[in-house]
Every structure is written in structure tokens, then in C-alpha cells.
Design brief:
homodimer; alpha+beta; L-amino peptidase D-ALA esterase/amidase; Ubiquitin-like (UB roll); 2 domains; eight-stranded mixed beta sheet; seven-stranded mixed beta sheet
Chain lengths: 382, 382
């Protein structure tokens, strides 16, 4: 619970059933720092929110069940209408309301449905309802994701992180969204770089299917007013930890996933090289199906590495799978296939590829590619 | 049948069962033009064959069941031993023998097994055995791929194309290989550019899983001696047609595929832009699972386009699916979802994305992503 920040999550009727509308009310005007998808096709909420970047915020509306992406000018006008209605109910300014959406692309928001539901959402606002909010924003996620931390400065502070997403993008009902709330008073400029870095180290280090959504959004809300710089270091550490925890929760709940794989590239000349190789391995359907099948098929790993568009010297490469060294200098070491298969029949897979060319490293988390991934994504929308 | 080119395909024991060793003998020294994988990790046969680039060729050995990739210096030495033995049997020079391999990465060739089988392979050589050769080089392919054409110059000429591959890379037993044989006398320099272009327009326009193998190889063998330039135009046309036919046969037989999708990007400012968008859509697991599910989910198509790393103006984009216009200027046109679903329940899917920004186009073929793709690739190697 954070004093001065109230949450609600209700079933408004955007989805056929279940919670689908989350609302947050800040008792005082608050700062916000936002990061959005790099996709060239951006959802209406991103185009809308960006207009008010830097302005103080009083409320946040997040809906699931409809991405409000590729909806043209009408998609933005819809948010203006909803914002107007909410502003009246809360007696705040319309431009003090931000939005985020997740769900199917190309469909307009059911504006009348949402407008009729807003009074209920406002009435349900409580400091203790963060969990309802977290539940209202999920789609193909099998559970909601919420992390709390506390830390000390001139007084005791709290930080609450909420996220949804069953991968970087999850189709029909899509998108990665994350929101961080705190009563710690700090100005955006003091933490912009740390926030960007924390996102790079968390959400940008997970991938389910290599797909980048039209709606991806991470927002950090901090208190306005006199800053407490005595706790800045601790706040940054907690922020990193909250985002990392949320990212791991997302990847564990990746669509159809039965396993989480940690891919570590070591010994690169440059970090960029290590990153390209790590990301290429992490999205390889052949590597990911091998994980699903508990197959110690290192050939697929080195093949993906070779296809990353950066120099790789196969004769220098060492690979360990589940802490077992199975490739030395590009050539297979004798190993017991049955034993190795049993070792891979775990929820956690660890791959380390050492390029033996330098000191740079990069790591990333991915999932296995399973029948259920195909099932979830091949099933018709309606 | 081509006079002067003999084929055989036998079961040598590299695989537990089935044909696995193909041999081609050229009665006269022949020209060869080769193109190899862009993967930084290259199979032993590529490293070996390249040493003799430009030299005349008398024989070609192709095995399935073992990629001979990531096998270090030993993998190359193994080819020298096999080449030595075959050269003695055929009374030709060892360096006149070229190799190609396909199968699991990281395992050495069973040299003794292959050496013992060579006399049988030599004894089976016949001008009419091209089909046996085509059968010996397949892996997860459900059938062999062979195309024949004839054309006229100063005399009648033939061209035979053989290929294998159930996608750009097919895991355990992997790799795209293609070989073109002809009795048409032409020097490599006269057709190098046309060959490169024909490959670009055929094998480089198909993708099953976006994976690039360590072994991909395309070889064109032409007769040495006095050239017949009167048929050069026709030969180039036949070459394009043979490679295109083989490529389409490969994509139709893509691992687990139930559908072939043709993705056409139009109205780009530059061809490179159209190509990047086409390739990004063609490897998108979300688009490919939607094809499998007959889901007219155009949101996934525009989302993938937006993630291609090139500028896209969503508000200008038109999309047709199965010749039905469903998106105009970035916004959905009303369509009957049930009817559209039935129209997508076909073996062939046609997607046209018009960026409406220029005149450049690019098209590519891909498959759907199915339960069987996961099944084939998650099953343990042994």
C-alpha cells in the first residue's frame, strides 16, 4: 500500500468476461517517466500520452481486451472522450489522465461501454486495491504480476510494480505493459538514465517470440515536491530489482512455455557482438524446440550464433549446457546423451557460449517453443 | 537423362536405414559454379570444396544423415580420405571430387562405412539414376525433388535440377542443397551473374523458419569445351525456371507445413525496404500461427511490418488477404470474419501489403507454423 495512490480493477464489458479496466488515482499531481515500443506502428495510447509528456499526472486508465492500435485518428479521439468523462468524475483536468491499452489490434475501443463503467471504477478506488488493478490489465497471462518493495530515506518509502504480458508480444491479446508506483519524491531528470538502464536490464532481456508489440509501455510514477536525495541510490537499486522481478515473472508465464532458458554469451570482443548472438539464439525456433524436447542439440545453438550477422570463429567456441561442458574449441566433447537429456528435462535451462575472443558478456532469458504456443496463437480470435 | 553424366544413390549405412549416399560422375571434366551459406559457421564440405574453386570437376559425392559441420580439421581430413578412395576407384584425380553433406551438426562422418560403400555406389552409376541420387540426399523431406527441362541451341540440351531441404534449415537433419546438371557447354564467367540472380529469385525467396544452415549449397555444373552462345538466353531462362520450381517444391514440403503463404510487399520507396518488411512478416511466429489457424489477423501482419527496422507509415498501409481488401489507409474495412476464415482455410495464402509510398516491390514465400513443426523439431535426435 502506498499512501496517496488509489487503485481499482473492474469488469467493464470490454472482454466477454473478467476484469478488463484498471484505474489509478494519484491524490497529488505526480511525475511520470515513460518508455514505449520501438515498433513503427504505435498504439493510440502512445500517440496520445506523448502529447502530454512532462505534464503532471493525476490518473491512469489501463484496459485489456482491445489494443486500440491501427485505429487511426478515431482511436485517439476515443481516448479524448473517455478522458473527458473521467476528468469530470474525478474533478481533475482531462490532460492529467494517461492511458494504456492491450488486446487485439485493429479494433476500436467500446467507448460507451467504458464510459458507463467509469463511475464504478471510480467508486472502487482504494489504496489497497493494487491487486485488482494488476488483474484487470492481464490478457493471455495465467496470473497477475505484482511486486512490492520498501526502502528508507528521510522517511519510509514504498515501491509497487505491476506488469502484464506473456512474452514481448502475445498476439490476439497482446502486449507488455508495466507500471511502477512509489511515494518517493524524485524528479524525472534525476532518474531518467537509471530508469532507462533498469528497463534495458529487465524487460529488454526477455523474449518469448522475438515479436515487438505496437503497445509496449513502461511507466514510472514518482512523487512531485521536494526531493529526498538521501535515498536515491537505494531507490535506483529497488527500481532495478522490481523491474527485474517483473521481467522474470513475465518470461516464466510466457505463452505455452514449459521452460525458461538463460542464454549467456561470454568472451566477446564487444558487448554488441555478444548481444546480437544472444538475441539470435534466443529467438531461434530450432533452439527453442530443442529445449522443449530436452535435446542437447548444441549444433543448433552454434548454427544460430553463426547466423547472427557478426563474426564468430567456430574453432574457438566453448559451450556448456546445464553446467556441462559439451563443446570445446568448436568440437563436441564426449557426453552421455541420455544423462544430458535428463539434465535438460528441467524447468530451467542454462546455456553458456564462450567465444574466447574478448571480455564482453551479454545474457538474455527466453522460453521453449511448445505445442501450446502454437495452440494459443493459432486459435481463432472470437 | 543427360549423356555423359551418371548418377547413383545407395544405402551406405550413414543413416540407420534408407538411401544416404549420392554420387555423380562426369564423363568429361566439367565446370562448376557454387554458392554457399552466409552462416559464419560453415560445414567441412564448404571449406574443402572452396580450395578447388575454378578447377575442373569429375565427381560429386553428397551424403545425408551427417552434416559434417563443427567437426574441425578432422572433418576436412575425412573428406580427403574419402576423396582419395573414390579417385582410385574412378581413376580420376582426388581434387576432381567435390562433396556436400546434410544432417546433424557436430558429428564426424563414418569414414570407414562410406569407404566400404563406395564400390557399390560406383557400380550403380547410370545416366538414368538421377532419381536415386535425388532420393539419397533428402532428410526430413517427405519426397525427393527433381526437375527436368530441355532447350535448343546448336543441338538439343537438357538441364536437371535436384534439391533437398524442408526449409532454409531443418534441424537434426538439416540443410538446403541443390544441384543443377546440364550438357550445355558454357563457361562460368558467362553465367555467373545470371546464376547468382536465379538463386536470389528462387532459394532466397523461401523461408520456413528464418534459420540459415551451416551447410546450404547450390552448385551448377556445365560442360567445358567450345561454348554454344546461341542458346545462352534460353539456358538462363531454363535455369531460372528450374531453380524457381525447386524452391517452390522445397517450401511446399516445409517442415510441418500445411500451407504456403505468398507475401507481397508493394508501394515501397526502395526495394530494400520492401524486402525487410517481407522477410520480417515471413518469419513472424504470430503471423505464421495465424495462417495455421486460418485467422484473418491482419493486426499481426502490420505489427510485424512495423518491427522490420525500416520506416512504415501505418496510416498509408493497405492490406489484402486472399484478394479481399481488409485494411485501407491503416484502418480495418468491415469484413465477414466467418467467410474470411473459410477463405483462409486453403493450402495457399496470399497477402499483399501496399505501403503506398513508392513503386518498389518484393515478394517471398513462407509456411504456416504448426504443431508438426514443433513435433518434428522437439523430438530427440536418436
Amino acid at each position: 500500500m502506498i499512501k496517496g495512490i488509489k487503485f481499482s480493477g473492474i469488469a467493464s464489458g470490454i472482454k466477454p468476461s473478467g476484469l478488463d479496466l484498471g484505474l489509478v488515482l494519484f491524490q497529488e499531481k505526480t511525475h511520470v517517466l515513460s518508455l514505449y515500443t520501438s515498433n513503427r506502428v504505435k498504439a493510440a495510447h502512445i500517440l496520445y500520452d506523448r502529447k502530454y509528456e512532462g505534464d503532471p499526472v493525476r490518473a491512469l486508465v489501463v484496459n485489456s481486451g482491445c489494443a486500440n492500435a491501427c485505429t487511426g485518428k478515431e482511436g485517439i479521439a476515443d481516448l479524448e472522450v473517455i478522458g473527458e468523462k473521467l476528468a469530470k468524475l474525478l474533478k481533475i483536468g482531462r490532460t492529467e489522465v494517461l492511458f494504456a491499452s492491450t488486446g487485439v489490434i485493429g479494433k476500436r475501443l467500446p467507448v460507451d461501454t467504458i464510459k458507463s463503467a467509469l463511475p464504478v471504477a471510480v467508486k472502487s478506488l482504494r489504496e489497497g486495491h493494487a491487486e485488482d488493478f494488476a488483474k484487470a490489465i492481464i490478457t493471455t497471462d495465467t496470473h497477475h504480476k505484482l511486486v512490492k518493495e520498501t526502502f528508507k530515506g528521510k522517511k519510509d518509502y514504498s515501491i509497487i510494480g505491476v506488469a502484464k504480458g506473456s512474452g514481448m508480444l502475445n498476439p490476439n491479446f497482446a502486449t507488455m505493459l508495466a507500471f511502477v508506483f512509489t511515494d518517493y519524491p524524485i524528479a524525472p531528470d534525476a532518474i531518467r538514465a537509471a530508469f532507462r538502464q533498469a528497463v534495458t536490464e529487465s524487460f529488454e532481456k526477455i523474449t518469448v517470440d522475438g515479436e515487438c508489440s505496437t503497445n509496449d509501455t513502461v511507466m514510472l510514477f514518482t512523487r512531485r515536491g521536494e526531493q529526498d536525495l538521501s535515498a536515491l541510490g537505494e531507490f535506483k537499486a529497488k527500481l532495478r530489482s522490481v523491474l527485474k522481478d517483473l521481467a522474470i515473472m513475465l518470461i516464466r508465464d510466457g505463452e505455452g512455455a514449459t521452460k525458461v532458458a538463460h542464454i549467456m554469451i561470454k568472451g566477446a570482443r564487444k558487448k554488441e557482438t555478444a548481444e546480437k548472438i544472444a538475441r539470435r539464439i534466443a529467438i531461434s525456433p530450432l533452439v527453442k524446440t530443442a529445449f522443449f524436447g530436452s535435446d542437447p542439440n548444441w549444433g543448433r545453438i552454434i548454427c544460430a550464433a553463426g547466423d547472427a550477422g557478426v563474426p564468430v570463429e567456430p574453432a574457438k567456441v566453448d559451450i556448456t549446457l546445464q553446467d556441462q561442458e559439451i563443446v570445446k574449441a568448436g568440437v563436441e566433447l564426449p557426453f552421455d546423451e541420455e544423462k544430458m537429456k535428463r539434465m535438460m528435462n528441467k524447468n530451467e535451462i542454462a546455456v553458456v557460449v564462450n567465444l574466447n575472443e574478448g571480455k564482453a558478456v551479454f545474457d538474455i532469458y527466453t522460453t521453449d517453443l511448445t505445442f501450446d504456443y502454437v495452440k494459443i496463437n493459432a486459435s481463432y480470435r472470437s
